[in-house]
Amino acid sequence: MTAISTEAEAGLADGAPRKGRVSAGGTLLGANLLEAILPFLRNIALARLIAPDQFGLAISLSVVLGMIEVITDFGLPIFAVSKTTTASDDEIMPTLQSLALLRAAAIGAVLAAASPFVAQLFGATDKAWVYALLGVIALLRGFNNLGPKECMRHYVFWREATVISTTQTVWAVVTVAIAALQGGFECMIWGMLAATVAEVALTHGLSPRPYRLGWNADAAKDASRFGRPLLVNGMAVSLAMGDRLLVGSLLGPSALALYNVAYGTATLPRSVLSKFLNSMFVPIFTNSRAQPERFARVSDLWAWLLSALGCFYGLGLALLGDEVLGLVFGAHYRPTRLFMCLAGMSVFVKFMMMLPVPAAYASGRTRLVSLGSIMSACAVAPAGLILILTRNLDAFLLTIVAAEFGAAIIYARWALRAQAFTPRVAWLCLGAPLAPLAALALLAWTTPQLARLDWAMACFGGVAAAAAFYGAVAVMFRIDFRTLLH
């Protein structure tokens, strides 16, 4: 079976109803939701099974691997989807596989060499071997077959969905089982290793294109041109992830566990949703490039959708976040109400920082993506200074929100110059929804002991105001999901 046959397989070749293309994304959405739910359940189990300091060290493993992989990410999976080159897939894919393996080997070597220093940073000098195993995991990931990624260009999502859901299931089950038996943070590394082996096996088993290493100079040049700006993007995203390193190194593993439960859990669904939305909208923008009017309508729908998701999710965090986290994870991990309001504001701004991303990927203008990541990353610097001075997580997060919102304003101006957004839609969707979120944060700060019923009424008032706003914007600017079907 070839990659071309995947179109016929799903009945989604060019000219087939686009309604089928949208419905095909439901499978991927389900997998992405599972990608959010299973780590959440895994963390709940770990919080109950191991001590807070061990939980913090377990988190540090995924943070360290995630940071170095993001630093070296130059968009090979995205390039396999968007294919901003005239070379054939038979030339491109073996070259992409070779580049992926070279990257993985370099990451693995760096992680193995740095493991003693990383272990010392988190106060676990006798467990350097655990951090060294991260290098093995990184190397194994380099053998993934990119075939399921390529299939998404043709709106065939079930292969990638199967890889995601199975990998996350293996990670959660193995980690929790070993935690129950052993009780130490090493459970995380064994779960990660098992999940990686499963991921490699599945990408090979489900790919319609056999795994093959090769080299085509033109294809490598095109991939490098596409990915070079994303290296800067990766460094910036990695710096933005440095909040956990700051909290862990300055306040200790127990504080890192609390911060990860509160802020990490709050932002996890956003991370998964952003992955799903990009997977869905990059092909839509890619296939709309030859239709400027449709491209513009999709752009406005994208801005409206991002804003609505960010705002309502942020309001949900303000309403229920502290109670739910305290109930699920235990009283030790319950954040303040103010912290969850600030987390809601932060999530909204992070959603809006995605404004130009799928259109930029579709057109190969990855430099714009990198600029956004750099600006987001800069927010960590002043927040780190505040954390050093105050040792207070609320003040730390407030500084992140303020710095990120300033970055979002500048980034939106760049996006409006480079892309097809209607300016009023973009500015309204960026600025207005922050008002109810900020009002709730102010209320939580001035009246921290407000009764639960009164707090719920205030939050529902914010929800009603947001719903009225988004309805008005949709009517005024003719925002319509049927745009995706034409």
UniProtKB/TrEMBL annotation:
Protein topology in the membrane: Multi-pass membrane protein
Keywords, comma-separated and alphabetical: Cell membrane, Membrane, Transmembrane, Transmembrane helix
Key word Flavoprotein present: no
Transmembrane segments: 28-51, 57-79, 100-122, 128-144, 301-321, 336-356, 368-389, 395-413, 425-443, 455-477
InterPro entries: Poly_Biosynth_Transport
GO cellular component annotations of the record: plasma membrane
Subcellular location: Cell membrane
Stated family: Belongs to the polysaccharide synthase family.
Name used for this protein in its record: Oligosaccharide flippase family protein
Organism of derivation: Alsobacter sp. KACC 23698
